[in-house]
Design a protein that fits this description.
This protein is mainly α. The protein has a two-stranded antiparallel sheet. Helix 4 packs antiparallel against helix 8. The longest helix is centred in the middle third of the chain and has 23 residues. It starts with a helix and ends in a 22-residue tail after the last strand.
């Protein structure tokens, strides 16, 4: 976390600044695509976004870090400890765990519903014993806690120009779209962990089961049935992106370039998977660095233009400075269109 970002967010306590910096490092290490997009946010919002994603990465590492070589029982105890720390942090606003300290402070500043964090932890815990999802409906139930709630946590931070309840279904869908993209891209790595996040009924419609996936992963061989199943999974995911897209224009204008960049880059992962002929069991498909940079530069140009328009209003008498529009949000406890300032 840069000093400029922390200063802009009004985070002055040294211990809290260190906690937010820890979250930023987690986000930078694990989420290159989204970290790049986050740098396009207004400077005062970035620390909160890093706290939310840093905490999610922290919990996910407990569940999925293959290098840690923890037993399921040890992972369960670690999650239980984190859940207790989270509960205490959300209640008291303090924690000895830096990542929890930062996310609890963000939840307080933006009045984020604690239920969203507890739903997230419930899905993380299910990863310790659930290894398959018979139907897409079963998978969506899991993704409510693992992905949809992330979008809902983000919404108060980003701000909206419509009543928050109107934007919430699209924010939830965007979280799900991002995670479905990860599930397809990482299907081989997840199989190594003993889990398959693609619905069994979708796979079975193409004659694919776990045994066939494992054979392909182990042998390096391909099978047209697997390709067809993965292609359908990609089309399913694109449908969720279409559900999410209308919500982009419901966000505060200053954050739209960031979120549209994330939307485009994550959608680009699906393009990369297709370009690799759906060989995701044998390697991770990535958006080329040059393409990521081009998307980011386009967004940056849009930000510069938007800020210039916000600063200056042309009148017959000449050029007159104008203050940027205030952040607005609405939802429980707020009035639509009322100015909302970080606490």
């Amino acid at each position: 976390m840069t000093a400029r970002e922390l200063d802009a967010a009004g985070i002055t306590d040294a211990r809290l600044r260190s906690a937010y910096t820890r979250c930023r490092h987690l986000n930078a290490r694990h989420g290159k695509t989204y970290f790049l997009a986050t740098r396009l946010l207004p400077v005062d919002r970035r620390s909160a976004v890093h706290a939310l994603y840093g905490f999610a990465r922290w919990a996910d590492d407990i569940v999925d870090d293959l290098a840690a070589e923890l037993t399921p029982e040890e992972r369960d105890r670690a999650l239980t400890r984190l859940d207790r720390q989270l509960d205490e942090g959300l209640r008291d606003g303090r924690s000895d765990e830096p990542v929890v300290q930062a996310v609890a402070d963000t939840a307080r500043r933006y009045a984020i519903d604690p239920v969203l964090f507890h739903d997230f932890m419930a899905s993380m815990r299910s990863d310790l014993h659930v290894t398959r999802y018979p139907t897409y409906a079963d998978l969506r139930t899991y993704m409510h806690g693992s992905a949809a709630v992330i979008g809902l946590q983000m919404l108060p931070v980003l701000g909206t120009v419509v009543p928050r309840a109107e934007a919430e279904p699209h924010a939830a869908a965007l979280g799900v779209a991002f995670q479905l993209t990860n599930f397809l891209r990482d299907v081989g790595e997840d199989l190594d962990r003993g889990r398959v996040y693609l619905p069994e009924d979708l796979l079975a419609a193409h004659g694919v089961d776990r045994q066939l996936l494992q054979w392909s992963r182990d042998s390096g061989a391909t099978d047209p049935r697997i390709r067809a199943a993965f292609e359908e999974a990609a089309q399913l995911t694109r449908g969720v992106y279409r559900e999410a897209e209308p919500g982009l224009d419901m966000l505060d204008r200053r954050v739209r370039p960031c979120m549209r960049t994330a939307f485009t880059l994550y959608g680009g992962i699906l393009d990369a998977v297709a370009e690799d002929d759906y060989r995701v069991l044998h390697g991770r498909s990535v958006v080329p660095r040059r393409r990521r940079a081009a998307v980011a530069l386009t967004a940056l140009a849009g930000i510069v233009g938007a800020r210039a328009r916000a600063r200056v209003t042309r009148t017959p008498a000449g050029v007159r400075p104008r203050a940027a529009a205030p952040v607005t949000a609405s939802g429980p406890g707020t009035d639509a269109g009322r100015e909302v300032r970080p606490r």
